[in-house]
Amino acid sequence: MSFAAIMLVGLLVDALFGWPAALYRRVSHPVVWLGALISALEARLNRGSVIARLLLGAATVGIVVCLAVLPALLVTVALGDGWIATLILGLLAWPLIAVRSMYDHVVAVRDPLLAGDLPAARHALSMIVGRDPSQLDTAGVSRAALESLAENTSDGIVAPLFWGGIAGLPGIVAYKAINTMDSMIGHRNDRYEHFGKCAARLDDLVNLIPARLTALVFALVSGRAGAALQVVARDARHHRSPNAGWPEAALAGGLGLRLSGPRVYGDRVAEEPYVNDGAPDPEAKSIGSGLALYVRAMFLCGAVLAGLAAL
Questions:
Q1: What are the average pLDDT values for consecutive 10-residue runs of the chain, which has 311 residues?
Q2: How many domains does the chain have?
Q3: CA neighbor of 240 nearest in space, from 183, 290, 188
Q4: Do the domain assignments include residue 187?
Q5: Is the pTM of this model over 0.70?
Q6: Does 311 reside within a domain?
Q7: Using an 8 Å Cβ cutoff, are 310 and 2 in contact?
Q8: What domain range includes position 77?
């Protein structure tokens, strides 16, 4: 069985249809199911001493991954080989690849910003970033939208395709379980600092290669590959995240713009360094340029999967 072919089916179906609202109303979404399981375990297990929280957090990671992967493994074995199995497994992988939703969420920021409706753009931005967008100007909203596009292309698309390409449906399900745990409990605050540490570190590990692949893909389709890779080599390692700086730096270099920098989380200001400092700040129209680059990147990902499937 070609795992690349399975991922290609999932990628194409998601690019064409996304996750329809009618389907969401009827069955919700697999990530929501994972979130409910994680929330239930966290509510029961996140207590006790520091050591207890570390151990129970690690146990939560093991439980969630096992409960998510086991059905995927059983289905894969039951279906066996052949094109029908590839099609069914690709359809099951479909909701775990966020090609269409990523595009739509960023468009929802771009369109009101181009129309001069900054409050509506800020509201749309709040759906995809963790920082407070209420005081951001046009450049700040544009910058945050492009940063989210870069980071989520890695986490939401390239990484799932990478792990699915290696291990099929169980691989993409395992990755999505880990990434969802990181987004829910992998935070550095009083509640999750210890309980979510295992989830956060494991997420860093499984995104190590995909983040760098995403940077390479962005650079290759940017039309400014040399400049993009120079920014990556210079600035990626200065990012607060061991992985997010790579696609962010490649996008900044590919577009010839300055990204990252200081940001507000609640009542705290994070003094982050700029990526591609010295380049101009993004404008509303820069989001469209970023989306065009994103579309080319998705075509390249699809072409790579098709080539691997044909081997």
A1: 94 96 94 97 96 97 98 97 96 97 97 96 92 87 96 97 98 98 94 96 98 98 96 92 95 96 65 89 96 98 97 87
A2: 1
A3: 188
A4: yes
A5: yes
A6: no
A7: no
A8: 3-304
